[in-house]
Structures are given as structure tokens and as C-alpha cells.
Design brief:
Structural class: mainly alpha
Largest sheet: none
Order of helices and strands: HHHHH
Oligomer: single chain
Number of domains: 1
Helix content: over 70%
Radius of gyration: 13 Å
Distance between the termini: 12 Å
Number of strands: 0
């Protein structure tokens, strides 16, 4: 659990991007969003999904910082929202397991 929190705290993103992602949590639908973002229906293991989403988010952050013309802030917000949602799910499951 602490590793997840440490990972999230180490992300240095613009406040407006993080704020938008947090607002997206209210409307987040795990099945729908992960199917769209990951292009797969196998989304059962939150730790694996978190790792995959985090790698994707790092790629988007690199594209943003480098001014890549293909960068989409909307997609970045969606992926960052999914990262936050998966982290919450992992933390919740770990608390329930103890």
C-alpha cells in the first residue's frame, strides 16, 4: 500500500491536470474506461492494471513535456483518472484484507 502512495506522491504533474483527473473519479466506470484505455477486457488484477496504466501515463507525460503533436490532454486526464482509481481500489482491497 505504501509503495502505491509513494509512487503517486512522486508524480510531478501540473496541478490543473491532477485536479481534472480527481474530478473525473466521480464519473469513473472501471469496466468502460479500462476497456477503452487498455483495449482489453482482462482488467481483473488492479496491481497489473495500475502498472500498465502508470507506464502509459509516463509515456503521455513525456509527450506533453516534449510538445509532441499527437499529445491529447483529454486522453492524459482519462489515463491519470484511471491510475488514481486503480490506486484507490488497491488501497481499499489491502485495508479490507487486514
Amino acid at each position: 500500500m505504501f509503495k502505491i502512495i509513494d509512487i503517486l506522491q512522486s508524480l510531478k504533474r501540473p496541478k490543473i491536470l491532477v485536479r481534472a483527473a480527481r474530478l473525473g473519479l466521480a464519473e469513473y466506470n472501471r469496466d468502460r474506461e479500462l476497456r477503452r484505455i487498455t483495449k482489453t477486457t482482462q482488467n481483473t488484477n488492479p496491481q497489473a492494471v495500475f502498472a500498465r496504466l502508470l507506464a502509459h501515463e509516463h509515456h503521455l507525460e513525456d509527450a506533453r513535456c516534449n510538445g509532441d503533436a499527437s499529445y491529447s490532454i483529454q486522453h492524459h486526464i482519462q489515463v491519470l483518472t484511471a491510475v488514481l482509481a486503480e490506486a484507490k481500489l488497491i488501497i481499499k482491497r489491502n485495508k479490507n484484507a487486514t
